Task: structure prediction
Amino acid sequence: VQLQASGGDLVRAGGFWKLSCVVSGSFSYNSIGWYRQAPGKQRELVAVISVGDSTNYADSVKGRFTISRDKTKNTVYLQMNSLKPEDTGVYYCKAKLPRGRGEDWGQGTQVTVSS
Result:
């Protein structure tokens, strides 16, 4: 599975922004997750959506971020509202593959939230 994340930008605190992750390739996946990595910190899970469209969120983004999937466009979105400076980081999307085949990562896209 190949993943192409895009949409990162410089955003004002309190604002909103949307990231996209285009998924391609011949393999199916069990879930797509958005992760982020802030400078000097470990990469962390932000949100995940399964092929059944069930979702899970990190506590830090619950109520502010929404992950969704457009099957017709093979794209997973991350809608980010009420952005905070601590949301700054490189955002990655990851596909969890079925039957123990591991996972595939896309390249990151930088989101910077200014105060």
The first strand starts at residue 2 and ends at 6.
